[in-house]
């Protein structure tokens, strides 16, 4: 029998399930994806219906289970988005919407917390800034705005706990997922007492902590009948999607910085210890032994999608790419602050909104798109400048993600904005691959998460003239940012 590992990736815009062999390579045509969209409210809310996500995941598992006939299933590796916040009743059922990292409604609560707490000290312990994307502010906002709903909540968790509770009747929170909440002490690997008090909850209102190598086995009866080949295999707790993306891109030490552009964007480095805090960056964990540092922006593929829909751009992506490739860098006269979902790294300022400055009658839709894509590249350049000193001097930058897969023009913009060579990873599902590699390592099939690393292809090199144009554009963006 062929031995396979199921990788389940629950992202911000879709759920995916895929089969991987014992070397961490995806099996052809053994993949299923179900898209969904969050509910966006006029006051800044961004929420998912947890029932919709659960249905998408079960559809994915139905599809891959059907394709495992005649195979030995070793286990299931799970990754999901960091920072998702979901309330559960005493029976483990969701009673609140699933609040996402892009939800900005808790911004006023951040200012209250900032006045009461020593933010640098909190950042040093938890690795998180005071911001609406983290749990302390959002829990306070929920308690203020929806007290009756919060009164029904026995525990707080994320989608990983929802899935585990549904499939097994009980659940735990991995160190990886806990480390992205803003409630977790990174060095001690436990809930932070001051952060809990600031959030208005106790540790008893959270799920027990486990490490990523502690699986569950034995599906509940209904699910065991539905997926008999998954019934007794190891189901590993969810890890953060940033962790899985780094591992799946073979960026598992300080010699490689992972750059990912999906719905949002991020730059990340894996390190053995959390290290000293860097203002503007976050610090989370892969597990109790290994940390990950970086900066995530709230803008990425969501900016491209917004431009495409609002500007009525052609459905022919190739035509748009050709137009972008023919345009000079920063030749449109526009300056964009791309804060459609607020700002995270590097400024972590709450309440920020997007701005397009310099519009005239002769500006075209494609020029607005180009300016918005370049603006995201400039934000990534600002994060890279802060993160690069933590990497090895001769580090490589490895890029992946759906946003870059669809747009070679965007890859070029980012390379020139960073001013550093970038290796583009042809791995289209780096996050799923990372979940598979982490699970295979936990099972003892692989000797370390870095062992199957692939050699890098030749990098895309920055063009000095374009780089100079983007340096000037970055200064113009910073000036506008300060003015507004």
Word description of this protein:
The chain has 484 residues and is of the alpha/beta class. It folds into two domains: 2-241, ATPase, nucleotide binding domain (Nucleotidyltransferase, domain 5), CATH 3.30.420; 250-426 and 454-484, ATPase, nucleotide binding domain (Nucleotidyltransferase, domain 5). The chain is built from 17 helices and 23 strands. It has helices at 50-66, 107-116, 119-126, 135-145, 147-151, 159-168, 175-178, 193-199, 221-226, 241-248, 301-310, 317-326, 365-387, 402-406, 408-418, 430-442, 464-483; strands at 2-10, 14-20, 26-35, 39-40, 46-48, 71-80, 86-88, 98-99, 155-157, 173-174, 184-185, 190-191, 209-210, 234-235, 239-240, 256-261, 265-271, 282-285, 291-297, 335-337, 355-357, 396-400, 422-424. Strands 1, 2, 3, 6, 14 and 15 form a six-stranded mixed beta sheet that branches. Strands 18-19-17-16-22-23 form a six-stranded mixed beta sheet, with helices on both faces. The N and C termini lie far apart (62 Å). The mean pLDDT is 95.
């Amino acid at each position: 029998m062929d031995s396979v590992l199921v990788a389940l990736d629950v992202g911000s815009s879709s759920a995916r399930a895929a089969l991987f062999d014992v070397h961490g390579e995806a099996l052809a045509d053994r993949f299923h994806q179900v898209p969904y969209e969050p509910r966006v409210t006029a006051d800044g809310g961004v929420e998912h219906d947890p029932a919709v996500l659960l249905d998408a995941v079960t559809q994915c598992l139905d599809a891959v289970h059907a394709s495992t006939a005649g195979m030995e299933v070793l286990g299931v590796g799970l990754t999901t988005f960091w920072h998702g916040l979901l309330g559960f009743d005493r029976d483990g059922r969701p009673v609140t919407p699933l609040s996402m990292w892009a939800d900005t409604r808790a911004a006023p609560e951040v200012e209250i917390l900032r006045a009461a707490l020593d933010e640098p000290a909190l950042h040093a312990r938890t690795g998180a800034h005071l911001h609406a994307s983290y749990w302390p502010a959002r829990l306070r906002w929920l308690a203020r705005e929806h007290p009756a709903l919060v009164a029904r909540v026995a525990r707080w968790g994320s989608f990983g706990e929802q899935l585990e509770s549904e499939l097994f009747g009980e659940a735990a929170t991995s160190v990886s997922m806990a480390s992205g909440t803003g409630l977790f002490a990174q060095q001690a690997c436990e809930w932070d007492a001051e952060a809990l008090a600031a959030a208005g909850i106790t540790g008893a209102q959270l799920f027990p902590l486990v490490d990523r190598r502690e699986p569950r086995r034995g599906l509940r009866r209904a699910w065991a009948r539905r997926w008999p080949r998954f019934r007794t295999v190891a189901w590993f707790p969810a890890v953060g999607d940033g962790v899985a993306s780094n591992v799946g891109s073979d960026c598992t030490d300080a010699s490689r910085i992972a750059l990912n552009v999906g719905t949002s964007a991020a730059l990340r480095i894996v390190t053995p210890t959390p290290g000293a805090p860097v203002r503007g960056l976050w610090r989370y964990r892969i597990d109790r032994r290994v940390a990950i540092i970086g900066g995530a922006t709230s803008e990425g593929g969501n900016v491209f999608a917004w431009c495409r829909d609002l500007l009525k751009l052609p459905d022919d992506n190739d035509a748009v790419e050709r137009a972008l490739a023919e345009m000079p860098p920063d030749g449109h006269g526009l300056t964009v602050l791309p804060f459609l979902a607020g700002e995270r790294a590097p400024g972590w300022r709450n309440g920020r909104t997007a701005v397009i400055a310099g519009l005239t009658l002769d500006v075209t839709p494609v020029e607005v798109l180009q300016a918005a894509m370049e603006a995201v590249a400039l934000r990534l350049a600002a994060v890279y400048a802060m993160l690069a000193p933590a990497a090895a001097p001769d580090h490589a930058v490895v890029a992946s993600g759906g946003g870059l897969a669809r747009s070679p023009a965007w890859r070029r913009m980012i390379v020139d904005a960073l001013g550093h060579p970038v290796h583009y990873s042809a791995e289209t599902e780096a996050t799923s691959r990372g979940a598979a590699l982490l699970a295979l390592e936990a099972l003892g099939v692989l000797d370390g998460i870095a062992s199957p690393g692939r050699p890098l292809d030749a990098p895309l090199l920055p063009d000095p003239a374009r780089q100079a144009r983007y340096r000037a554009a970055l200064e113009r963006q910073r000036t506008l940012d300060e003015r507004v």
